[in-house]
Amino acid sequence: MEQQEKNEWAQQEQEIQEGLKGKSFWYADWGFPILVGIMSAAIFAGTHMYVVYGVGAFNEVSIVAMLKAGLDGGSYGAAAAFGASFLFARILEGSLVGILDLGGSILTGIGIGVPAIFLSMGIKAPVENFGLALLTGAILGVAVGGVIVLIRKFTINQGNSTFGADVMMGAGNASGRFLGPLIILSAAGASIPIGIGATLGALGFYIWKKPIAGGAILGAMIFGAIFPVSL
After folding, report:
1. CA-based, 20 to 30 A from 80: which of 70, 112, 122, 219?
2. Which residues sit opposite 168 in a β-bridge?
3. Would you say residue 160 has pLDDT above 60?
4. 54-70 pLDDT, tens per residue?
5. Residue 91's closest CA among 80, 100, 82?
6. Are 159 and 90 within 8 A, CB to CB?
């Protein structure tokens, strides 16, 4: 009888702790988009500083040079395409692997690609006004974080077995080569066909002597389109 009471007490204690975690900012799903939004606001404001004052962009010199070429010559195609493609790829990677590459998604995608798209369309206010730059960056960051959490919730984490977004931030290109096995495992957790697609894609890229992470993502996307996961 005493052991049963101890088990009931332990179960109640666990339920209380899980309830507290569910209400905590650091464990809640909605905390992740807010963090991404804060960082994106700072990055977009940095791009505003660069466009207006010539300093302040948060990125590598070679990538900022693409935006500089657009500012000087009026052609933003290279910066827009490069940044937008990085943003799209990192959103997919973040949803599938659970690791968001800040350099590709926020610094390059939101910091370079989106401003280049705005400027190419003649929309200058969000880039040239500091307040609007902060607001625009925050909205874009919240949108990116929300999309990642939603995709992950309805695919990889359908069981909701853990609290929090289960997404880490900060993976760079140097660590990206080690993400292949994680992508395959996450894809297999979504469904067997998607896992097979990720495995075949990784194998193909390995034979091609390319990073297997890209092949795993492409394979998972292709097989996911053929054999969709029911939400």
Report:
1. 219
2. 99
3. no
4. 888 888 888 888 999 99
5. 100
6. no
